[in-house]
Amino acid sequence: MTLAADGSRLTSVREGRYADAVTALAWLVGAATTVAHPAGLAVAGLLLGIVAPSPARALASAASFGIVVAAAITTWVAVVGTWPVSVGMWAASAGLRPVTSIVADPLLAVVLALLVPPTVATPIRALA
Question: Where exactly are the transmembrane stretches of this chain (predicted)?
């Protein structure tokens, strides 16, 4: 069973002439939505899963996206010394109290960045 009854519609996007451009666009849209809200990690995983040519590629591209997000957050903290404003919403979206979110922000941000995109991308690609 697939999400798209006719898989040939996505073949040109996955393997065609514009496959790299579509993947880059999925990265950019995912990054922009992740900056706005942590649910952007799932959006990035969804988009990368749709445009990946295979489930293994979906897992690899989504995992690399998560690694880049985790590295970007770590670099920001190292340079600026505080968490980005959008990271403050991560704990709140997980339902943590403000006192707990101060302690949980670093761990929660890294865990979400590394686990959510591959977890969404791989089944999406397997079904589509």
Answer: 24-51, 58-79, 99-116
- Write the pLDDT tens digit of every residue in 69-122: 888 888 877 787 766 655 555 555 555 555 444 444 666 777 888 888 888 888
Q: Distance between CA 84 and CA 78 in Å, rounded? A: 11
Measured distance CA(44)–CA(34) in Å, rounded: 8
How many structural domains is the chain composed of? Answer: 1
Q: Angle between the 55-80 and 98-127 helix axes, to the nearest 10 degrees?
A: 160
Closest by CA position to 73, among listed 42, 41, 48, 95: 41
Q: If DSSP codes are grouped into helix, strand and coil, which group holds residue 94?
A: coil
User: How far is it, in rounded angstroms, from Cα 72 to Cα 17?
Assistant: 30
Q: Is the pTM of this model over 0.85?
A: no
- Domain, as residue range, for 108: 8-127
Collapsing DSSP to helix, strand or coil, 7 comes out as coil
- Which of 26, 48, 33 minimizes the C-alpha distance to 89? 33
